[in-house]
Amino acid sequence: MTPSQGALTLFLCGDVMTGRGVDQVLPHPVPPNLYESYVRDARVYVELAEARNGPIRAPLGFDAIWGDALAALKQAAPDVRLINLETSITTSEAWWRAKGIHYRMHPANAPCLTAARINCCALANNHVLDWGYAGLRETLATLRRLGIATAGAGEDVDTALRPAVLDLGSRGRVIVFSFGEDGSGVPPDWAATADTPGVDYLPDLSPSTARRIGERVASVKRAGDVVIASIHWGGNWGYRALPEHRAFAHALIEKAGVDLIHGHSSHHPRGIEVHQGHLILYGCGDFLNDYEGISGYEDFRGDLTLMYFASVDPATGRLVGLRMLPMQLRQLKLHRASSADAGWLCGVLDREGRFLGTGTRLDETGALVLQWEQASWPAAPPLSP
Of 76, 79, 83, 258, nearest to 168 (Cα)? Predict the structure, then answer.
């Protein structure tokens, strides 16, 4: 399939973790103190990255961490740029004591997001409240000041549940809902309430939860709108889409009016499905992080990531085409992946896609292209009551 002239182009990626080591190499880092079991200074993550791939000339410019991704974004000229921002933007020192890992970026470093012209940040994830309620409030205020829309978190339950509405003028609107669930490490007590800030928390992945989301979608969606459900779910490692994730994604498409599922939490890309013409990304993989010097799980190649460019028909919300550009995290910034690494990623997505009715091929430009046929759609697992 090739994108039609009227299709919207959406840029999507996985977790953008600009805290900790990444924040330390930007111009205005927060104090490096950490409260982890093994690492007490965020600069250690910079040292580990340098030990793996060579010196990093800090401070890096706000655009530098995006590396080769910026040229790719300019060339693709997407209508919307959506990321899962898995970092608190704050100088708060009130770390969440029940958690072992805490990410924060100094508000003065937040222009790294505008350097990539990010339109919207999904915030319902397991790090947005790492530095307490004050940290979340400062995160929201900082993003609003920069003109970046948010979804999935707010000062109270009303604002946390409010979707981001991205108005593209004559091109229509893209509406983003952001949800987090316990399987990805989002604490249940992070759910926003009438009195406390928090996230749009999914209590379960049941049909009744899907129906409630459908009611919320129906209250805002109008003809020509494309609705995205950005979901932080599941563990960090492993390729197979969980049956409960597939069932919930299918229910959101079939019953709730959602057009595209933007799944994240896994540290590496997972298989892709097209259900009734609608794209389901079960796990986009980390996009920016400070993990490159950390050992373990090497077989998953967490240093490799993807830029997802989805072309969607705004009249139907159906997928027209999906191109993915393979990137590699090296020296805390993004580089185009080698042809060998791109081929490896292509093989992984093609292998995993067989279970989901999709295939992946490598084109002459080094991009990965999704292939699918309606006749090959596998049946969804049954929804549990």
Answer: 79
Q: How far apart are CA 86 and CA 77, in angstroms?
A: 24
Cα atoms in the Cβ-side hemisphere of radius 13 Å centred on 299: 3
Largest pairwise CA distance in the chain: 55
Packed helices 207-220 and 243-255: angle between N→C axes, nearest 10 degrees: 40
Distance of CA 367 to the CA centre of its chain: 20
Q: How confident is the model at residue 373, as a pLDDT?
A: 84
pLDDT of residue 377: 43
> Euclidean distance between the first and final Cα of the chain, in Å?
37
Nearest to 96 by CA among 129, 124, 140: 129
List pLDDT tens digits, range 21-56. 999 999 999 999 999 999 999 999 999 999 999 999
Tell me what pLDDT residue 374 has. Answer: 58
Query: What CA–CA distance (Å, rounded) separates 151 from 218?
Result: 17
Running DSSP on this structure, what letter comes out for residue 259? -
**Among 16, 21, 18, 25, which residue's Cα sits nearest to residue 44?**
21
- 3-class SS string, 170-204: HHCEEEEEEEEEHHHCCCHHHECCCCCCEECEECC
When mean pLDDT is compared across 2-16, 196-210, 230-244, the lowest value belongs to: 2-16
Nearest to 148 by CA among 208, 216, 85: 85
CATH 3.40.50.720 fits 8-376, yes or no: no
Residue spans of alpha helices (H) in the chain: 21-25, 43-53, 69-76, 111-115, 132-145, 157-160, 207-220, 243-255, 339-353
Q: How many residues comprise the chain?
A: 385
Query: Are 174 and 168 in contact, with CB atoms under 8 Å apart?
Result: yes
Transcribe 101-123 into DSSP letters: ---EE-GGGTHHHHHTT--EEE-
The mean per-residue pLDDT over the stretch 8-16 comes to 97
Nearest-angstrom CA–CA distance, 16 and 210: 27
CA distance 349 to 359: 7
